[in-house]
Design goal:
This protein is mainly alpha-helical and 659 residues long. It has helices spanning 2-20, 48-55, 67-81, 86-105, 115-133, 136-152, 177-190, 193-208, 242-257, 269-276, 310-328, 331-351, 354-369, 407-412, 445-450, 470-491, 499-514, 516-522, 536-543, 576-583, 594-607, 613-616; strands at residues 168-170, 219-221, 235-237, 290-292, 297-298, 383-384, 391-395, 398-401, 421-428, 431-438.
Length: 659
């Protein structure tokens, strides 16, 4: 009783704090937010674009209507239906169907090599097209691809690793989990048990490969021979999805079979994650990319070393902590996530200190002038020292720390540090000369490289361009608003709409059909539409990074090519479709509006009631695997298709051990 009362009081105090929270502010001198810590998080005063940059997609929940509200909604919907640009909708529909038929005819003969990705993404696209348009030729095109994948499955249950025999299993990079989801999608749209059996055989072999700590390694060899590729066998990896992807698979197959063996050992990940935290003292929190079974970090590729990594937080441990918390309700789990997030914020703020920011901006200008795409974003070092004193880019199994380092730390972390000096190119009076600079107690690599006009990202961290915190930030915001209940609501959604919910969903769809921005992009005036995409992989790949943060400079969008180029708003891997084309960053050459065309046609069908209440409601977002960094909107035309293969309002309702 006392515990419950304390929880209620805690939620009340949090709600009051949110109500009184100030809006997030951007510093005019840096172009960055002044404070993004957990304590500062709020949506107050943010534009729709700013919200999606920081927090990803929205989950829309519809309640029941009064008679007055119902009448008003029907009236508004009827008015809006007459305002939709039918000619534009028909143009988009025609282009989508034309593209789909072109892709249907482009069917590889076998599931192998580079065609594997085309076949997998093609199956997902055609199954979704069938769900939306109800055309059997699209269903058949999806099944043609699913059958190629099924035919290629090894007898043990795993799928091929190109160039290797059935002895080897590639656990990371979607080699097994994506075919698994395609099998479940084929089962969903056909009911054919052969696809479910295929998915179960894959889950069984992956269950066999689960490590004692509850996670998975990068690869496996049944006879113990080496694959020739880096990555752990006898350990747990957070790199490129092995643990998170298999976690999703085990939950999915449990929901379909109710066999608890699939989830029996997933709870072991929580104590293992606690043990694997490499932060030596508060407030430092972080995880490496790969570990031995005993929790000691190991290195893999030249930029994956035994130090805490931003990739491990955003791509693996962060989502895992969210999922575990949604399952168990253990506040320690969300508290550890908050600490990890706030430690990232401390690094970001140090990078934004005036002198550090000046040097980083100078470094990025070198990048821009050279035409390179590795712009550093504050806080996004590839790795940091476990005591939190320094961080930087990683290559050659060394961390190039940004800031000066004293002798004590040099000795302590010497095996991770590169040679002490480096030759840089300095231009004086228009003449380029070479000078040797050294890492010291008064000079870090940031100072050294910011003076090197020939620097082009040799040790720039790849985390800056391919990483985002919005899924983690969203989870923390929802938790701050209302604890686990609010977070569960964000991750939940019905599998079918009531009459009132369906009416509201149709009304929202009609509103999206009329939004100026959506109409402008779907019109495809710059010939950046779906017909410009070479294959389904190019289309599906955009959804995975639909929303998310982008580097922002106080200089604003400015030329990045030519003699006057400097670093302005810089493209990352995030928001290439949602932001880049719209804002014409770097000329808009990376943007494509194919998904805007799909969304318009989908919303038009829904607004007219041609997508029913069962199909329109696809269940909760669950253990996300599509836009796993930043979350898609609950109404998205493609959406979280993997978890939608098993429609559940709450995927986190699982029997869980208490130990």
């Amino acid at each position: 009783m006392i515990v419950n009362l304390l929880r209620i009081l805690s939620l009340v105090s949090v709600s009051l704090a949110i109500a009184q929270a100030a809006s997030l502010e951007i510093d005019s001198k840096t172009g960055q937010y002044r404070d993004l810590s957990y304590a500062a998080l709020t949506e107050k005063g943010l534009s729709a674009e700013e919200r999606t940059r920081l927090f990803g997609g929205e989950t829309v929940h519809y309640g029941e209507l009064t008679e007055k509200e119902r009448f008003a909604a029907r009236t508004e919907l009827a008015d809006m239906l007459g305002m939709i640009n039918e000619e534009l909708v028909e143009q988009c529909r025609t282009e989508i169907h034309r593209w789909l038929m072109q892709q249907a005819a482009d069917l590889p003969a076998v599931y192998a090599g580079r065609d594997m990705h085309k076949i997998k993404t093609g199956a997902a696209v055609f199954f979704r097209a069938y769900e939306i348009f109800r055309r059997k030729d699209y269903l058949q095109a999806g099944l043609d691809r699913a059958d190629l994948i099924l035919k290629a499955q090894w007898p043990r249950g795993h799928w091929p690793w190109p160039g290797k025999s059935a002895n080897f299993v590639r656990i990371q990079d979607g080699f097994n989990d994506t075919p698994f989801w395609i099998m479940l999608y084929a089962h969903k749209v056909t009911g054919d048990k052969k696809y479910l059996e295929s998915a179960r055989r894959c889950a069984d072999v992956m269950l066999e490969l689960q490590r004692p700590g509850g996670g998975w390694g990068d690869q496996w060899s049944f006879n113990g021979s080496a694959s020739g590729n880096s990555g752990v066998y006898h350990g747990i990896s957070f790199n490129d999805g092995p643990t998170n992807a298999q976690f999703r698979m085990m939950v999915a197959i449990y929901h379909l079979t109710r066999d608890r063996k699939y989830i029996a050992n997933l709870h072991k990940l929580w104590p293992w994650i606690q043990k694997a935290n490499l932060g030596e003292k508060d407030p430092v929190v972080g995880w490496a990319d790969q570990y031995n079974d005993d929790g000691t970090p190991v290195r893999a590729r030249r930029y994956e070393i035994e130090l805490p990594s931003n990739y491990a937080l955003t791509r693996a441990v962060g989502p895992l902590l969210v999922w575990l918390y949604l399952i168990t309700g253990e506040e320690e789990q969300i508290e550890l996530l908050r600490k990890a997030y706030d430690w990232h914020e401390e690094m970001r703020l140090r990078d934004l200190e005036p002198e550090n920011w000046r040097l980083l901006a100078q470094l990025n200008q070198h990048q821009a002038k050279a035409g390179h795409n590795y712009c550093y974003r504050p806080g996004w070092g590839s790795a940091w020292l476990p005591d939190g004193s320094n961080w930087g880019g990683v290559t050659g199994y060394n961390v190039f720390v940004w800031y000066p380092i004293d002798e004590e730390r040099r000795k302590k972390y010497g095996r991770f540090l590169p040679v002490q000096s480096h030759e840089v190119t300095i231009t004086k009076a228009g003449k380029a000369t070479k000078e040797r600079r050294s890492l010291s107690e008064s000079q870090g690599w940031l100072q050294i490289y910011s003076r090197d006009e020939a620097y082009y990202g040799r040790h720039m961290c790849h985390c800056s361009i391919g990483n985002d915190l919005s899924e983690i930030r969203r989870a923390l915001l929802e938790h701050k608003r209302g604890g686990r209940v609010a977070l569960q609501k964000y991750y939940s959604n019905p599998t079918s709409y009531t009459a009132d919910q369906y009416l509201q969903a149709r009304l929202d769809a009609a509103r999206r059909c009329l939004q100026e921005r959506n109409v402008k992009l779907a019109r495809n005036s710059d010939q950046k539409g779906i017909l410009a995409l070479p294959d389904p992989g190019a289309l599906v790949g955009q959804k995975g990074r639909w929303y998310g943060d982008k580097y922002r400079s106080p200089l604003g969008p400015v030329p990045r090519k030519g003699p006057n180029a400097v670093a302005g708003d810089w493209p990352t891997k995030w928001g290439a479709s949602y932001y880049e084309f719209t804002h014409h960053v770097s000329g808009g050459e990376r943007g494509n509006v194919g998904w805007y065309q799909w969304q318009l046609v989908h919303d038009h069908l829904l607004a007219h009631g041609k997508i029913g209440p069962d199909s329109a409601a696809r269940g909760g977002r669950g253990f996300q695997g599509v836009a796993f960094h930043n979350s898609l909107d609950s109404w998205d035309a493609f959406g979280e298709w993997m978890m939608a293969c098993i429609e559940r309002e709450n995927h986190f309702d699982l029997p869980w051990p208490k130990d």
